Amino acid sequence: MSDHQADTPTQSEVTSTLAPHTTHKPIASFAGELLERWDSLIYAIVGVCFFLGAFCALGYTLWHFWVLIHALLVKTEGFDATNVAQAIIQLISDLLLVLIIMEVLGTVIHYLKSHATSLRPFLFIGIVSATRGILSIGARLSVGEGSTGGAFTNSMIELGVNAAVILALGLTLKLLGKLVGD
C-alpha cells in the first residue's frame, strides 16, 4: 500500500462518519416542510381576514358617505358647502384606509406566491398613510378645529412631518426602483 492510500479514508469510513448526520436530515426536512405549510396556512388566513376587513371598511365607507350626504340633502335649514367638503374629505380618507389594507393584502399574496417579502409595498403604505394624515389635518383645519394658538402650531408641525415622510419614502422608492427591478 502506498503512502497516499494510507492517509485517505476508505469509502466505508466516510459513510460511517456521515451516517449520524443523514438520519437527522429526513427529520429536519419533514419539520421544515411542515412548518412551511403551517406558515403558508397562517398567511392565507391572515390574507382572508385582510380581504374581509377591506371589504367591510369599503362598505362602511360608502354607507357613511351616503348617510352624511343624505342628511345634508334632507336638511331643511339650507345646504352647507362646508359639510359637503367635510364628507368628501372623510370619504377620501376612508378610501385611503381601504387602500392601505389592500396594500398589506397584496404583500401577503406576494409572500404566498413567492415566499419572499418586498420592501416596496411598505413604502407605498407609508406614503398613503402620510397622505391620509395630511387630509385629516386639512379637514380639521377647514372646519376651524385646532386653528388657534398651540393647536395650530401642532397641526403645522404634523403637516410638515407627514410631507417629509412622503418625500423621504418617495425618494427611497425611486432609489429602490433603480436598484431592484421588482
List strands and helices in order, with pairings.
Blueprint: H1 3-7, H2 11-74, H3 81-114, H4 120-142, H5 149-179
Helix pairs in contact: 2-3, 3-4, 4-5
Oligomer: single chain
Helix content: over 70%
Instruction: Give the overall silhouette.
Output: elongated
Number of domains: 1
- Helix tally? 5
Our Rg estimate from Cα atoms comes to: 29 Å
Gap from first CA to last CA: 60 Å
Can you describe what's shown?
There is one protein chain. The protein is mainly alpha-helical and 182 residues long. The chain has one domain (21-179). It has helices at residues 3-7, 11-74, 81-114, 120-142, 149-179. The longest helix is centred in the first third of the chain and has 64 residues, at 11-74. The mean pLDDT is 83.
Give a nutshell description of this structure.
With 182 residues, this protein is mostly helical. The chain has one domain (21-179).
What attributes characterize this protein structure?
182 residues; elongated; 86% helix; mainly alpha
